[in-house]
Amino acid sequence: MRTVWLVVISAGLATQLAGQEFHPPPVQRARPAGTRIGLFGFGVRSGVDFAGRGSAVLGVALDAGNIGVERLRLRPSAEIGILNGPNTYVASFEFLYRLASDRGAVAPYTGAGLAVAGRAGCGTDPGCPAIWGNFVLGVEVRYRSTFNWLLEYHALDLFRRNRLYLGLTTRRGN
Question: Which of 64, 69, 123, 172 gives the lowest tally of CB atoms within 10 Å of its CB?
């Protein structure tokens, strides 16, 4: 009788084990090397423009892709300066080089680009809008898995205008 019970229990266990389904581990896809263009993230920021009496500055930026390598990024942005003088408008297109990987807790970067800048009453000034050369120096600090804090210095118009920003930006999901 003992042998019969062992055969019944063994058959029951074997039937349950045979019905299990195998789930393979997720495959980590390799990132393609080279140029990738698209919308990989965005950021919002606010700060101060130190020209004249200073004005408040609000801006948005897009992570628009890589050029050649993962760390060389394209970033178009738009800013508006308000208070203490005429409103200013700046649309920039910059190349940023990340000095460290996005996987770390801190990601410093530097870059340069061109901007089209205008201000309230621009239509009556023959020198407006203007093309400005920009320099960027910043750092992103991990806030959550999908967001970073942003601290950035922006030198506009070949260092004639200086802005300091604090903001929040999305992470690329590394």
Answer: 123
CA 73, 75, 80: angle at the middle one, nearest 5?
160
The class (CATH top level) of 40-170 is mainly beta
d(CA 166, CA 172) in angstroms, rounded, equals: 19
Tokens standing for 68? Answer: 């050649």
For 64-88, what is each residue's pLDDT tens digit?
Answer: 988 888 889 999 999 999 987 788 8
Prediction pTM value: 0.75
Inter-residue contact 141 to 169 (CB < 8 Å) = no
Domain assignments of the chain as residue spans, ordered by start: 40-170
Dihedral of the alpha carbons of 69, 39, 164, 90, in degrees to the nearest 10? 110
Q: Concatenated DSSP letters for 118-152?
A: EETTGGG-TT-SEEEEEEEEEEEEE-SSSEEEEEE
**β-bridge mates for residue 15, sequence order:** none
- What is the distance in angstroms between the CA of the first residue and the CA of the last residue of the chain? 61
